[in-house]
Design a protein that fits this description.
Length: about 60
């Protein structure tokens, strides 16, 4: 969804996460995963701002359903 992010940066983030998992470094892997998701989440929410129904705050987990 975060298509505006640089593919080289995304590849680097995925590689770092992969390497942390392979090394068994669960704390580093969790931290890298969190940062990776947060970076994409911000831009995704910004692009959805005009699409989501009024009063919906996806950052809080609110929404239809």
């Amino acid at each position: 969804m975060a298509s505006d992010r640089d593919s080289g940066v995304l590849c680097t983030e995925h590689r770092e996460l992969y390497e942390a998992i392979c090394a068994g470094d669960t704390e580093l892997a969790a931290s890298l995963a969190f940062v990776h998701v947060e970076r994409g989440r911000r831009s995704s929410l910004e692009s959805l701002a005009g699409v989501l129904p009024a009063g919906t705050d996806p950052a809080e987990g609110d929404g239809p359903g």
